[in-house]
Structure formats: C-alpha cells, structure tokens
Amino acid sequence: MTGPTVVVGEVADGHLTGPTLEAIGVARALGRPTVGFVAGAHARSAGPEFARYGVLEVYVADDARLDSAPGGARVGPLREVLASTGASVVLAGGTTNGRELVGRIAIAWDAAAATGVTELAAVEDGVRVRRPIFGGRATESRRLTGERQAIALRPHAFPSPAESPGTPHLHEVSPGALPAPLAAAERTGVAPTVRGAGPGLTDASIVVSGGRGLRGPENFHLVEELAAALGAAVGASRAVTDAGWRPTSFQVGQTGRAVSPQLYVAVGISGAIQHIVGMISSRVIVAINSDASAPIFKVADYGVVGDLFQIVPALTAEVRRVRGL
Ligand SMILES: Cc1cc2nc3c(=O)[nH]c(=O)nc-3n(C[C@H](O)[C@H](O)[C@H](O)COP(=O)(O)OP(=O)(O)OC[C@H]3O[C@@H](n4cnc5c(N)ncnc54)[C@H](O)[C@@H]3O)c2cc1C
After folding, report:
1. pLDDT at site 173
2. Cα dihedral angle (29, 30, 35, 39), rounded to 10 degrees?
3. Within this chain, do residues 117 and 170 fall inside the same structural domain, yes or no?
4. Is residue 61 assigned to a domain?
5. Which of 50, 99, 245, 269 could form a disulfide with 36 if both were Cys (CB 3.0 to 4.6 A apart)?
6. Is the C-beta atom of 85 inside 6 A of ligand 1?
C-alpha cells in the first residue's frame, strides 16, 4: 500500500456531508497523501470544501445526471481518479451511497473491501479493520491486504477532523456516458420521509426512542420534548409504529432503521432482540424502564428503573436547565 487515499465525498444542501468529513479524518490519520473526489450537480462548488480539512487535491465530476442515476454511475469517474492518482485506498462515508459505491468499486478496481468499519489502521501490507457483525453482538477484525482496499465507514464511529485550511487544486473528471443499465434505472421521484422535528434518524448523533411503555400516542410528546431538549432525533419501537402512534419511518430495529448515534435513549422499550439489532452499536445507551428485568438493561450503559412518566419530564427539565433552554 503505497499510493494515496481517495475520499469519496457526498454533498447535501450544497456542502460536504458529516460522513464525508469523518472519512477525511480517517484518511488523514492513515498518514498518506489524501485526495478528494466528489461527483454530482454541486461537485464543483462543494469540492473546494475538502481543502478546509487539509485535502488540497480534489477531483470533481460535475454532472447533475450523477445525482439521479444509481450509485454505480460514479464508478467510471472514480476509477479514472484512482488510476490517475495511483491510489491504494478508497474511503467512503457510512451511507447507503457510500456502501453501494464501495461494493461496486471493489469489483471494478479489484480491491479488498469492507463496509461498516469502526476502526482502521495502516499495517505493513494493507490495512486492519474492525467492525460490528451479527447485529452488533460481535466485533470482527480483518486484514485487507494486496495493492488496493475499498472501505466504507460506519456513521458516527469517527470524529470529524480539525480544520486545516489550504488552497484547493481542482481537477475536472469527465463522467462520460452512463452505462445503459444504469441509465435504464431512472429515478422518477423522491418523497421526503415523514420524520420528527430535529435531525434525521440515521444522521443524528443523539436518538431518543419511545416504546409501548408510553401507553398511547397522547403521551409520545414526552419523548419528543426530551429529544428537542437534547437536539436529538425521535425514534420508536415497532410496537409504537404498528399501533400507528408514529409512522413506520420512526421505527428502529431489524425491520426499521439501524442507528448508531453517540447517545441512544430508550424510553419504555423492553429491548426485544429485533429492536436491539437496530441500536446496539450506539456509543452510549441509556434505558428508562419500570421493569428491572427488562432485556434492554442488558445492553444499556446507564439504566434508570422507574416510571417514565415521572423520570422523563424531570430529565427534560434538567436538560433544558443545563442547556439554558
Ligand atoms: C420479524 C419481526 C421483526 C421485528 N422488527 C422490529 C423492529 O424493527 N423494531 C422493534 O422495535 N421491534 C420489532 N419487532 C417487535 C419486537 O419483537 C417487540 O415486540 C417490540 O420491539 C416491542 O416494543 P416495545 O419494547 O415498545 O413494547 P413492549 O415489549 O411491550 O415493552 C414495553 C416496555 O415498557 C415498559 N414500561 C411500561 N410502563 C412503563 C412506565 N410507566 N415506565 C417505564 N417503563 C414502562 C415495560 O416494562 C416494557 O419493558 C419485530 C418482531 C418480529 C417478529
């Protein structure tokens, strides 16, 4: 492994996303030259943001077609960048697009690959990675050897890097013609997900989820108020979404969203395995439940045994007081 690391950037609202910044931080920590790559309608305007974090060589494929085409459409321009820079590693953020691109580029570029990575270190003949498997019940270590590695990180597993501004050198990359099978998978619409106020569930660094212990939809505001005080996203167990208290887009778990925030607060949730697999890789888990034998306490870092109707309003008031809200 001798060549540079290429970080694949993603853009939202005209700026590089949080997962992209996490990938930049990881790439810089590998201690090799780092190159940025970004494709899509805002590539040319967002690309220079790489330089705020010390990544000065930036390749942009500015073409709006790449936003609506499947992720595979970026493989062509990315391969061009990998070839012209002589890269050894390509790193993507822990997003659906990042994982898809890593899977595809690993085949096209003949690279060793891993996704959902929470630890990464350079070793003599490649990189060593660790990642949660079996829904977070075990951690796998792998050594990716050979000349090329393609890696997607797990969201929130790494901090954003400190700023280290410089002057970017932008290189234009032609996206070329879209391969026919990709052009054939035309996106016909994007409907925003129904979600609570505050950050999106899968992006949030704090999630507060409510379960059947809330007894009815009329009490769900307790969860929402605590989430608002913490600046958190709101989640729910399937008991809540099946009962129609909240839309299915709120559901955390095996058949809902997988989240891995810095802090996950489970309110009135028993901790069925199907819920646990969706939140077990959260950095810190807090459970509030009146039943001391509830399984959620087996995975919680902090447990409060008691009545949520007393604890949650008191906790919300305290968070508001401490944060001056
Ligand atoms: C194929 C399959 C897929 C599934 N996928 C998912 C999934 O993706 N996500 C998911 O969440 N579930 C999923 N489930 C359902 C899962 O098995 C559980 O039924 C569900 O998670 C239970 O939700 P709950 O914890 O809110 O409710 P319960 O299990 O009823 O737990 C309610 C908890 O609230 C506590 N409580 C009650 N009153 C209070 C109070 N006053 N104060 C504090 N605590 C109180 C109780 O002690 C209890 O532990 C799936 C099930 C199947 C079969």
Report:
1. 95
2. -80
3. yes
4. yes
5. 50
6. no
Cα separation, 123 vs 144, in Å, equals: 9
Which residue's alpha carbon is at the smallest distance from atom 51 of ligand 1?
274
Domain carrying residue 168: 5-184
Which of 215, 238, 250, 309 to mutate for ligand 1's pocket (most ligand atoms within 8 Å of CB)?
A: 238
Q: Which pTM was predicted?
A: 0.76
Indicate whether 195 belongs to any domain: no
Does the pLDDT of residue 136 top 80, yes or no? Answer: no
Here the CATH number for the domain that contains residue 24 is 3.40.50.620
What the block records as the tokens of 22 is 């996490």
Nearest CA to ligand 1 atom 23: 239
- 26 shares a domain with 162: yes
Q: Answer yes or no: is 19 within a domain.
A: yes
Please give the structure tokens belonging to residue 305: 């045994």
pLDDT-derived band at 180, boundaries 50, 70, 90? confident
Q: How far is CA 10 from CA 67, 279, 299, in A?
A: 10, 24, 33
- List the structure tokens of 16: 């590089």
- Ligand 1 pocket check for 259: Cβ under 6 Å: no
pLDDT exceeding 70 applies to what percent of the chain? 98
For residue 239, the Cα-to-chain-centroid distance in whole angstroms is 25
